[in-house]
UniProtKB/TrEMBL annotation:
Protein name: E3 ubiquitin-protein ligase FANCL
Presence of keyword Zinc-finger: yes
Protein location: Cytoplasm; Nucleus
Entry keywords, A to Z: Cytoplasm, DNA damage, DNA repair, Metal-binding, Nucleus, Transferase, Ubl conjugation, Ubl conjugation pathway, Zinc, Zinc-finger
SMART domains to which the protein is assigned, alphabetical: FANCL_C (SM01197)
Gene Ontology terms: cellular component: cytoplasm; Fanconi anaemia nuclear complex
Organism of this sequence: Scophthalmus maximus
One BP term from GO: interstrand cross-link repair
One Pfam family it belongs to: FANCL_d2
Record has rRNA-binding as a keyword: no
Enzyme Commission designation: 2.3.2.27
Domain RING-type: residue ranges: 303-359
Length: 371
């Protein structure tokens, strides 16, 4: 019996001369499961005790009565282990998530790689040891997080990587690659974006940003307050952050038109060697309100219809063009208001009507959200 036991289960070995304690692994579908078998002095299976790893317990959940029955009825340990493997095969088929759990060498490989990379760079790892968050610092001292989702065949299979970046994270991976090399590639990407973040940090620190309310590292757009109900939306190119960004002036036409004319007339003065903020000042011939000189509440005017500033993600960006009014509205609010008026008319995607405040002509274009 012992020779058959060793032949069929080479990783399960006796720990004492009496052969009443066996410890090691049973192999099912090329997967190894930790198991310890404690036999009584007379080596009767019906009074044996089993101790196993959490994964084996998970697989046997619901089959405990079968295992107990086989312990009672099996003629010897070899037969019992054969029947136990059959039960495990059924468990693996009924629980697909268990079949994707990596083999033991996966964990030893992961630990070895983290030892090389440094445990101080690990911010998080899930209970399955599949998802890692690694911290990284660029040359300007900014903190970044690299999220890595390892595959069960790591390192033979490329992991999924993501980070809060304005561009897709492109990495290279071979079966010989390591987490250290992946982290090094991430640092190179961060350095290539340093100038982009420098540009936006200068804008964020010296102007009032209306949108986004809490910019992330991936945000390329800033809506900058110019005055009451007047702002400019700039879209910075992460690859060429100091070039003239895409600009869109927002506000009442009588205020926006002169600024738009200046932008068009002075566009040729844009100097890529100067900062984006300084260039915007020179081209528009204005000084932006800053946290040092103004309060944000000066520009956070509530919608004249719903009386709130933020409606989900939207802020009031539709402004009455009459200089004596200038009341802002949310696009969705104004659209619903005008649509309800019998006197309003629609031409293609534009609704024409009267301002809810001053009754002067006002228009609003339908967007995907309001249509």
């Amino acid at each position: 019996m012992d020779s058959s036991l060793v032949k069929d289960n080479p990783l399960l070995l006796p720990l004492n001369a009496e052969r009443t304690v066996y410890d090691g692994f049973v192999t099912v579908q090329e997967r190894d499961f930790r198991l310890r078998i404690l036999l009584p002095p007379d080596r009767q299976l019906k009074r044996a005790k089993l101790q196993c790893c959490w994964l084996l317990k998970h697989l046997l959940h619901g089959y405990e009565h079968i295992v107990k029955q086989r312990l009672q009825q099996s003629a010897d340990l070899v037969t019992f282990l054969l029947e136990l493997k059959t039960v495990l095969e059924v468990g693996l088929k009924s629980r697909p998530e268990c079949s994707s759990i990596p083999p033991p060498q996966y964990y030893s490989q992961l630990i070895a790689e983290m030892e090389t990379l440094g445990w101080n760079k690990l911010l998080f790892i899930d209970t399955e040891l599949r998802t890692l968050r690694l911290k990284a610092e660029d040359s300007s001292g900014r903190q970044h997080i690299l999220t890595i989702k390892l595959k069960s065949k790591h390192p033979a299979e490329a992991p999924e990587c993501s980070a809060d970046l304005p561009l897709p994270l492109a990495t290279t991976w071979t079966p010989q690659s390591t987490l250290q090399q992946l982290h090094d590639q991430f640092l190179v990407v961060l350095e290539s974006l340093t100038e982009f973040w420098d540009v936006l940090e200068e804008v964020d620190g010296n102007t009032w940003i209306l949108e986004p309310e809490k910019p992330s590292r991936s945000d390329t757009m800033r809506r900058i307050a110019i005055g009451n109900n007047v702002s400019i939306k700039v879209e910075v190119d992460p690859r060429h952050p100091k070039m003239l960004p895409e600009c869109c002036l927002l506000g009442a036409e009588h205020v926006v038109t002169p600024l738009r004319n200046k932008l068009n007339a002075n566009m040729h003065l844009w100097n890529p060697d100067s900062s984006v903020l300084r260039n915007l000042r020179d081209v528009l011939e204005i000084e932006f309100p800053s946290p040092a000189t103004h309060e944000k509440s000066d520009f956070s005017t509530e919608c004249g219809i719903c009386y709130s500033y933020r409606l989900e993600a939207a802020i009031p960006d539709q402004v009455c063009n009459d200089p004596r009014c200038g009341q802002p509205f949310h696009q969705a609010c104004l659209y619903e208001w005008l649509r309800a008026l019998p006197s309003s008319r629609q031409s293609f995607s534009t609704v024409f009507g009267e301002c809810p405040y001053c009754s002067k002509p006002i228009t609003v274009k339908m967007s995907a959200q309001t249509s």
